[in-house]
Amino acid sequence: MKEYGFMILGTFFFAFSVAIFAMPNGLAEGGIPGLALLLYYGMGWSPSLVTLLANGLILLIGYRYLPRTMIVKSILTIPLFSLFLFLLEDRSGPVHDPLLAALYTGVFTGVGFGFVFRSGSTTGGSSTIARMVNHKFGWELTGTNFVLDAAIVVGGIFVIGPVQTLYTVVALFIGKKVTDYVLEGFESKKVVHIFSSSYEAVAKSVRTNLELIRLFCRGRMMKTEWMSI
């Protein structure tokens, strides 16, 4: 239940960020929400409908490449995000300071992503596509996700202009930092996610090597203490 609570809370924060701060202030996003916002600015299409259809199609294509638990949670997250977005659309006016709007967008997006990722779910879009091509072609996960998001953001130059695109980059940077804090806390620790079909062998190898490193470091410390005596 805790994971589903994180998922619902994170989805709401992300939708809140898009509808209350990004949309009224002419900012974009990465991935499918960013594409939906650009279509909203350029053609007046509803972001909630675009995200629902696009993410649903991507999830349908990626069904055979993604873990089943992620599929189940994403089936809940994707329509929930579109629902929250629909309910929050046109509920807010523009913030007169665009930098402040970018800061708010980044903070709420980061909190939302952090909770969604902690629940083991995904918001769909570019992250789902990145996982699919990683599974099919072996492309690097983070790099592929970055390229897909960057393509949407760069495309925003032709719709919202270079200034608003720059503010969008600021919002994405802040969102990335806030997401890291939500996932890892404020301590200087790092989490590494390894996706492999041979996960048991990888886990065993990691545990074995970490134990060897621990014993080695312990031996060096004991030797240093003996020499100091």
TrEMBL record:
Keywords: Cell membrane, Membrane, Transmembrane, Transmembrane helix
Membrane topology classification: Multi-pass membrane protein
Transmembrane segments: 38-63, 70-87, 99-117, 137-160
The keyword Metal-binding is assigned to this record: no
Compartments in which it is found: Cell membrane
InterPro entries, per the entry: UPF0750_membrane, YitT
Protein name, entry field: YitT family protein
Organism: Shouchella miscanthi
Phylogenetic lineage: Bacteria, Bacillati, Bacillota, Bacilli, Bacillales
